[in-house]
Amino acid sequence: MKNWAGNLEYGTQNVHYPQNPEEIREIVKAAKKIRPLGSRHSFNTIADSRESLLSLRELNKVISLNKEKHTVTVEAGITYGELAPYLYENGYALHNLASLPHITVGGSCATATHGSGVNSRNLSAAVSALEWVDASGNIVTLSREKDGDKFNGAVVGLGALGVVTKLTLDLLPSFEMSQVVYRNLPMTALEKNFHIIMSSGYSVSLFTDWKNKNINEVWVKSAVSATRTQPAPPDFFGGTPAAANLHPVETQSAETVTDQMGVAGPWYERMPHFKMGFKPSTGEELQSEFFVPIESAFDALMEMERIHEKISPHLFISEIRTIKSDDLWMSPCYRRDSVAIHTTWKQEQHVIDHLIPLVEEQLKPFKPRPHWAKLFSIPPSELQQSIERLPDFKALCNEYDPEGKFRNEFLEYNLYT
Question: How far apart are CA 30 and CA 136, in angstroms?
Answer without folding.
Answer: 9
